[in-house]
Amino acid sequence: MTHDDIDLDTQLLYETLRIRLVELRIIQLYPSDKIQSPVHLSIGQEAVAAGACAALLPEDLVFGSYRSHAFYLAKGGDLRQMMAELYGKATGCCGGKAGSMHLAAPDVGFMGSSAIVASTIPHAVGAALAAKRRGLQQIVVAVFGDGATEEGVYHESLNFAALHQLPVLFLCENNGFAVHSRISARQSYDLLEHADSYGIPTRLCAKGNDPRAVYDTVAAAAERVRVERRPTVVVVDTYRQMEHVGIGEDHHVGYRSPSEAEPWRRTDPLVNESALVARFTPQILREIDDAVAFAEQSPWPGADALLADVA
Ligand SMILES: Cc1ncc(C[n+]2csc(CCOP(=O)(O)OP(=O)(O)O)c2C)c(N)n1
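That is the input. Now the predicted structure with thiamine diphosphate docked in place:
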């Protein structure tokens, strides 16, 4: 849909809802085994992608993680090509060879995602170095989870970006978990104080359920990166409603309880904005039906595609 006729808050809710409905359809489809790859769902975290991407310019670049359906869609990735990629079809955004964890849509600035935790953070820093050398006004966003900040390459990336004053926005989706492990059991540092020790300005958005709060935080941070041409770290607190990978819930595992999820469910914008949800759901479901039909009817990649794009 074109968003010219609705205000920003409504646009943000629309995109949040669209991501949720796509992932709910993935849950429905998954038992059929037609989706050929593991799925890391963003249910509960959609407002982060919706708010953050709305605060960027089309020419800005985003690098994501294996949990990237939301950022792929919010940055403008094609839904038909995403669904076909999940089905492993030749019409997928990566020719059906990449699957859910490796989505890419470079034509709209979603540059790629990877199953290897933290591995796209230095890619974003490299792209920011290129933007600086080429004198471009674009900024580059590295999206990652709180667990990724424990990887050595995160620390190297902060250092390099601060040392060379690169236009990169490090965006941490802090859902407090890495698989079944809580942040308090993993980190000796505070995410913001730690970034501060590299001389990098920081911002926190504690309301990751609120796409407008995310938008405001990321817009201010992005403006600073764009004008001052140096890095910023943004941490958005959020909550993963589903299990780490797969389509189920995992409260039985024991690392968290349903009561912990309750405040996040209560402030879920898609629960509280029921009138807007009712208004937009039918048209979004039609778009999803079309994308699923496209994926189902698309051909499989041929044997000739096996070694294409393999360096
Ligand atoms: C380099 C590397 N180490 C370990 C893993 C296994 N692994 C997959 S996801 C994950 C947790 C990452 O958590 P976080 O970065 O917080 O992201 P979230 O899943 O919460 O979005 C781990 C340890 C991996 N894929 N890559």
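The radius of gyration is 19 Å.
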